[in-house]
Amino acid sequence: MAEKRPDAGRRYRRVALFGGVYNNYLALGELVRECRASQVDAIFCLGDMGGFGPHPDRSFPLLRSGEIRSIAGNYDLSLAQGNEDCGCGYTDPADNHFARISYDYTFRNTSRENKEWLGTLPSRLSFGLGPLKVRLCHGSPRQVNEFLWDSTSPDHLLSGFLDSAGADVLCCTHTGLKWHRELPGQKHFFNVGVIGRPENDGRTNVWYTVLEYDGRGFRYEFRPLRYDHRRLAREMRAEGLPEEFVETARTGWWTTCLEIMPSRERRSGKF
Amino acid sequence: MAAAPPSLPLQHLDTLWFQVSGTLCNLRCSHCFISCAPDNHTLELMEAPRIFRYLDDARRMGVKEVYFTGGEPFIHRSFLAILECALRDFPVSVLTNGVLIDEAKADRLRRIADGSRFSLEIRISIDDYEEARNDAIRGKGTFRKALDAYKLLYDRGFLPILTVTEMRDYLTPQGGERDLHGRYVKLLRSVGVDRPRIKVIPIFEMGMLPAPAGQRSVTPEMLRELDPDALQCSSSRIVAHDGVYACPILVGEPEARLADDLEGGLRDCSLYHSSCHTCYVTGMTCKNF
Ligand code: SF4
Ligand code: SF4
Questions:
Q1: Domain residues of chain B, as ranges?
Q2: Domain limits at A105?
Q3: Three-class DSSP category at A48
Q4: Separation of B11 CA from ligand 1 center, angstroms?
Q5: Is A5 within the bounds of a domain?
Q6: What CATH number should be reported for the domain whose range is B12-217+235-268?
Q7: What's the pLDDT band for A3 if we cut at 50, 70, 90?
Q8: The domain that contains A255 carries what CATH number?
């Protein structure tokens, strides 16, 4: 079965992309419903299925249904390899404290079979969008857990990534915040955002990205996705996950993983 | 016979440091690892046009971020112009003792930061959470001035990073502080900062501090088991007025000097110094995170 490189050589007209499911199976369900309704040709997940939310195994039926093409994030590699930690690349003790709690929870509650499936995911993927070549990776093309924030990613670095990938459009995730930059030569870089956790802007929705190529050329849209965040918060609490995480789901403000954020991004948050 | 020290290849030049004010500083801290002082001309101020040329090279080579350190960057008369130029293309971090940051300078920094799409991070150093102990190391009045600078910037929307060394543990190992981080959080909250950012760095026994008894060094065996990413010299270099050095810790050390230009500075660096052992043990990076 050609599951490893399902999309090499395929051409699409409209695709949906997202990262960071973070066990948020409720948002994942909504996303798939929306994508069906808006008739996208394909759905891509850029990795990090676990962390943050409750009931890890509940995301896998959809992830493994064949409707979504996925690549592996650092979290997925760690779970598949039975690693001690999530490999997110935090360096601050406070960030690591919370990362540890959700990793241990996710590790305990992900079935062996699902972990094995994570181990089969490719680390990158390419496909055609109209005449454009799109490349997907998790952190950056060179490092699965590289943080690419808008305020710390210079144009020349991103152009270099696009050149070495031979791509017109490069998409990543990992940080949890979406952004886009148009680069010289009509190239585009995207951080497609995550559907597992809101964006640290005081709103409870999450985000995904739609790319499109039609007669009018290339277009993109960041789409807000609503889901039953109150239910997620209830289930997180019932599972004994930290109140800090529950608060993020309830309010849309990040309470953890703050130390790794550059000041520009952190300033627009509350904590 | 001791084996030759191992050397480490550069994976990719991500982080470029500038020893912008050389070893010249308005302070004379008793632990400064490169012995900076108002009259230490070992490394001179870097001329602005030279820095601009290095920045051009850095852009070409895909460097991800730029740091300015010294000495004290703000004693350089063209520093704000240099900063503005670097911020056009790079996220930038500045390491300062804060003494020269007054209201007018804080306002200028705000305008410069707002003029760029990239982050400007400012790091302010102190060495103890008690005024008297800090001032004994760094000089009278430096504690207040550093905290004032932090607050001036914070009130203008910056989120500065307070950089603290483990001096207290070094000076009184028996009475070591268990929750150093927490102490500094408390200190910053006490001056009205509700989003404190703190970086703790280990002590490097060089410069103004006596070299450690019994030389410890990195051996080839140690290196074999190590993820090279754990050492900052696998992805960074520093330029000073007289060329490119392996890292900010060994800047000015003749054996750590790699080349005149950035291209030449990409070659392997030797982990010959006892400080390399400190890096190996602590996994420290001079970067913000
Ligand atoms: S530690 Fe910093 S502030 Fe103190 S003398 Fe050295 S360079 Fe100057
Ligand atoms: S002191 Fe540390 S960063 Fe510098 S060369 Fe030695 S190991 Fe590398």
A1: 12-217+235-268
A2: 11-267
A3: coil
A4: 30
A5: no
A6: 3.20.20.70
A7: very low
A8: 3.60.21.10
The tokens describing A135, both together, are 């490349």
> pLDDT digits over B224-273, tens only?
888 888 899 999 999 999 999 999 999 999 999 999 999 999 999 999 99
Considering only CB atoms, which chain B residues are within 8 Å of A142? 12
- Taking the C-alpha atoms of residue B88 and residue B276, their distance in angstroms, rounded to an integer, is 34
A73 contacts A22 by C-beta, under 8 angstroms: no
Residue nearest to atom 4 of ligand 1 (CA): B29
Q: Residue A2: what pLDDT?
A: 37
Q: What is the mean pLDDT of residues A155-161?
A: 98
Atom of ligand 2 nearest to the CA of B273: 6
Average pLDDT over residues B206-223: 81
| Residue A3 belongs to some domain of the structure | no
Chain B residues 215-244 with CB within 8 Å of chain A: none
- The whole-angstrom separation of Cα B276 and Cα B288 is 19
If you take atom 6 of ligand 2, which residue's CA is the nearest one?
B276
Would you say the CB of residue B271 lies under 6 angstroms from ligand 2? yes
Judge contact between B19 and B70, C-beta under 8 A.
Answer: yes
**Per-residue pLDDT, B176:** 61
**CA angle in degrees (0–180, nearest 5) for B165-B170-B176:** 95
The reported pTM is 0.94
How many structural domains is chain A composed of?
1
Give the distance (Å) from ligand 2 centre to CA of residue B224: 16
Is any ligand 1 atom within 6 A of the Cβ of residue B70? yes
